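In the current project phase, work has continued on tokenised descriptions of protein folds. One protein thus recorded appears below exactly as we store it.

——
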Amino acid sequence: MANLNKVLLLGNLTRDPELRYTPKGTAVADLSIAVNRRVSDGSGNWSDETTFVDVTVWGNTAENSQKYLTKGRGVFIEGRLQLDTWEDKQSGQKRSKLKVVGETVQFLPDGRGGSGSGGASRPAESGSSGPPQGGSAASPEDYEDEGDDIPF
């Protein structure tokens, strides 16, 4: 039987990314995002249910996330689940935490309707030192109507 460990998240940063380096010099950043879900109580009233997710990203993605992302900024993260386990030094109890290891990060407009710094962009994983490439999202006026050529 095949296995799959894939996570797709679309949300907003709850704080600025925290960047650090391993002893061997590899960049690692911790992100925290809020993901909202609209739920109905059955009588027509809607509310938002918020889930907070911790995400860790590595390498150039970590450095670019710290450089270009700020609290409130929208992000699309593709990654995998990872269970971290450790022993609490004070109580001696075993502890565990489920988190997401981000493999790609797309920078989106912030949650307040602005574009934040740099606009929307593709994942910043290349070795370039400049801002991630991409630009702002295309508006509906940028597309021409191609008629009814679509078969569905």
Notes: The beta strands are 7-13, 18-21, 27-40, 46-58, 73-87, 94-110. Residues 64 and 129 are 9 Å apart (CA to CA). Helices lie at 59-68.
